[in-house]
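Handout for the seminar on molecular recognition.
Each group receives one record of this type.
Step one: identify the two inputs.
Step two: read the structure output and locate the region that could contact 56B.
Step three: write two sentences on what you found, then compare them with the reference statements printed after the record.
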Amino acid sequence: MDGLLTPRESAKFVAENSRDVFIDGGGVRRVAELLLAKASGPELRVGAWKALHELNPRAADEAAVNWVFVIDTLNFSFWSEHDEHKCLVGYRGSTYSGYWSLCAAVNRALDEGIPITSASYYATVTLDQVRHVLRSDTDIPMPLIEERHRILNETGKILLEKFEGSFLNCVRKSDKSAQKLLNLIVESFPSYRDVTQFEGKRISFYKRAQILVADTWSVLEGKGDGCFKDISSITMFADYRLPQVLVHLGALKYSDALLEKLLKGEMLSYGNRQEVEIRGCSLWCVELVRDCLLELMKKKGEKTSGEINSILLDYYLWDYARDHREDMKGIPFHRTRCIYY
Ligand SMILES: Nc1nc2c(c(CN[C@H]3C=C[C@H](O)[C@@H]3O)cn2[C@@H]2O[C@H](COP(=O)(O)O)[C@@H](O)[C@H]2O)c(=O)[nH]1
């Protein structure tokens, strides 16, 4: 698309023109120092994706890649009106909420013999079948079920038409370039086109397309088809959890007016100026944290097993948000109901 800024360019432009969201330099450094202590630990490496998360596939084969594809095709909008009443999915003795409830539901379906990760199935799956696959153990269903059904049909049909029904074929058309794969995803699959306007410019965050590239890199353990030479060009994923944890850690600040609005639980529509500022400043904030962390590591002479990139920082901060839900209760996340994040 002509004149469309990349996610990194978009984030920089938004951060430079933001009125209600601010990056705090001291907070950025404190987050970098928090991460420095973890730099040589088990979390900040590609293997953590499997080691730390029991629902993620163990394998690095075609089926695992197609699991990632259907998960990230549905990886959006899990928040509920009231946090105490939400969709929950019980699976193999544990109960999962939010993003993990999606993974649990998909794994439960596979255990039940429902081929939910096969394009030939979800290209024509019915709404009732999707309701069954994503069913909640509470009376609160997973949000946007109808949209999830529409997107499954749309995406499945395209995967069959263009990539013989397997996302691995799409990966193999990317010449092991993360950026080529990112562009192939947004050109081929409409629901991944996370683009909007800000101050008269066309901007992109591509949250689900970027996390799809990242999760493909992770499930393939950064090897073989997943050995993307430019994986570090992928930025963090502009969702609704990262801004919350960045505010909690003091790296991001909201104006009083915006904070008041979020504390009241007011919805922000997709593409609204304040919603764009939250997403853009969060993305740019993580880029600054990464730069600061790499600087600190150089000074300290810290060596790590692989390159620290924005994906690994994002994964760590997202997991941190999950593990510190109680501590973060006073910090509101922004409520946007959409299919993009
Ligand atoms: N920025 C960022 N956003 C992420 C993820 C993930 C899942 N990735 C994990 C899976 C394997 C890896 O090890 C990652 O740890 C989901 N989301 C987004 O969060 C929101 C759901 O939040 P909650 O309601 O609390 O479950 C929703 O917008 C969803 O799209 C991430 O990693 N980064």
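Reference statements: The chain has 15 helices and six strands. The CA atoms of residues 92 and 108 lie 9 Å apart.
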